[in-house]
What we know:
The chain is globular. It has eleven helices and ten strands. The strands form two sheets. Strands 1-2-3-4-5-6-7-10 form an eight-stranded parallel beta barrel, surrounded by five helices. The chain has a two-stranded antiparallel ribbon with strand order 8-9. It has helices at 2-13, 45-50, 52-62, 77-87, 98-115, 136-152, 175-182, 194-199, 204-210, 262-272, 290-303, and strands spanning 37-40, 66-69, 90-95, 119-122, 156-160, 189-193, 217-220, 222-225, 250-253, 276-279. Helix 5 links the parallel strand 3 (90-95) and strand 4.
Amino acid sequence: MKKIFSILVSAVALISLASCGGNAPKQCDACKELLPVGLQLYSVRDNMAQDFKGTLQKVKDMGYAGVEFAGLFDNSPEQIKAWCAEIGLNPISAHVPLADMLADVDKVIADYKAIGCQYIVVPYVTEERRPGGEKFLQMVEEIRAIGTKCKAAGLTLLYHNHDFEFKKLESGEYGLDYLYANVPSDLLQTELDQCWVKYSGLDPVEYLKKYTGRSPVVHLKDFFKEGEQEGDPYALIGLNEGEQKKNTAFEFRPLGHGVQDIPSIIAAAKEAGSKWLIVEQDQPSMGKSPMECVATSMEYLKKIGAICTFDGTECESEKCQHAKQAANKECKDCPHSKK
């Protein structure tokens, strides 16, 4: 098992993918095609509420190349666009409640297009719109209509899953698969949350491969689960208000500290043609603050070679390829070898 993991880690360091757009981070030749990594700002929502710009700067300083919004906290789209440009962050996407889109989709599109986002994401649906719910089929058509509006504006609509979309319909088909089968790919793409895919009992790698060519953004999320579930996992993320939050069997974790095989998921994302990896941690754990948790996830990604650590300083050795420095004795003292 350790040998397999080592092979996967090495593969991640050599992953080749498209660049990350206008605010691309400085990279060396050997790392320039790594998947860019962003942060879902819901992970640090309290910090965002207290100091929006300052939190963006800290996220950038950690090594994240882009961000996915979860609310604007009363800041104007124009101001946020200016901050992202100043700091050097790519405004990738935004989670927007379905209710907000249904109320005024034109405003939602205008706001996030003004910021510079490429994707708008349906983040969560209420019980009646879930598979088996009385409004599930209605929701499918609502998403089709919103996707049509997004496409006309030059944006792409994504759907972010939880575990309840993996409830089977009478046909035997998962609700999530029904959604993607009944809304064309030019109107709706996936944002597969790999925590909830695995929590549902499916293989994140295989499910991601299933949507090759339709998975531009992938949520990297780790978690720990032991024994039988106690309580409601959604109570842990501030949903299902009133439900008991007691939960000793499940908790969200920084990447590399849970049950997910992150290197394999990253390799599968490359194979599926994904453009961005987005780190998300709904609640902090392990005695760390939210900011400490997302910093820990970034350090893990650097450790496995998924993030370029090139600082612009050339190594004196002509043999140095930066991404391969650990195995190259010529580069043992190179700054790029210090992950």
